[in-house]
User: Fold these one by one.
Assistant:
Number 1:
Amino acid sequence: MNKRLVILIFSVSILFLTTGCTKKPVTTKTNSEILHVATTIPPLSMILEEVASKEIVIHQILPTGASPHTFEVTPQILKQLDQTDIVFTIGHGVDNWIYNVIEITDGLKQVTVDKHITFRSSHDHDDDNHDHGNIDPHYWLSPDNAVQIAYQMADALKIQDPNNADIYINNAKLFEEKIGEKNIQWQAELEQIANKDIIVFHDAWGYFSDYFNIQIVSSFEPFPGKSPTPKYLTILQETIEKHHIKALFLEPQLSTDAMQTFATDMNVKLGNLDPLGGIEERKTYIDLIDYNVKTIIDTLK
Ligand SMILES: [Zn+2]
């Protein structure tokens, strides 16, 4: 048993001692049954907002501005999960930190929202600690997949709260329609850009680029959180020249100083793609995709 797990079990034991194990699956508030639902990353909360009825309280676990690749669970989160009925997760390495906690949190229903997803394979391979496996886990960044996630959430909520089943299914349908309408605009805007070859900070944009016909030529950090080697940067430099790459794309949640220096040296533009959102201007799923489409267009034109 590793040290972190021991600490987790210890914290949870204390929690149960102080709360006397009084976890209730459904809390009664103002005579209505309130369902407490948690999600691991902000885009899942955004999709859940679309599907949710008024009888749901949403708890966002990953704080805004944090990266799931470098995050660790705190005792406060354990306490919050003790009050939670369902937790929606991405799985496949993105939110590994939640799974140990779920194992030791009594009566918490966990749903990995990947049921209807067609996976891409990951470019990078790992031996020890790096958390992208053979499957590319960033599937929420394709709007089609977001719709599938919405339907899976609706199915899970329907079981937990059958009185509002129609609301959840209907909300998922409305979300699908909104995405459909918005997509016409996104595709039209992207048609203005002839060369859509780009280099991204880490290998998170495969589903997004498949959906929008953008070519991800390479990534700056093949292993998120680990700086690229000088040898890797030499290869990247050749790739930039060969593909006439005009821009590199940073991410707000990871430390990107090295990439900024590299971009200056190479005399290419920098854009800022956001896989997670959650901040004021990117509070809804559509806003998040909108922002990223606009960033690509503004940086490449
Ligand atoms: Zn990632």
Number 2:
Amino acid sequence: MLLDTGIGIATVYRAVKKAVADGVLSRVELPNSAARFEPAELPHHHHFACGSCNKVYDIHGCPLGIDGLVPDGFQMDGHEIVLHGTCVDCVEQSA
Ligand SMILES: [Zn+2]
Ligand SMILES: [Zn+2]
């Protein structure tokens, strides 16, 4: 996303909000982190947040059995899973 073309950040923010509303982007919810967005067309996946470099990695696959956590009578529309830890780059740097 180009930010040096004279477009104000508010304009960019509005564009991002519209893209989310239009289903083009989806918001990645990460605790203690600025909002992140990714293309909504990505297949279902989850994230690994490195506490060392603050990068967020896509992880593929989804644990089975999440449906079983939903209380009786509740309807689940989706879920987010964020793993927290240290990425391989940071593990190697600290080795
Ligand atoms: Zn890292
Ligand atoms: Zn999942």
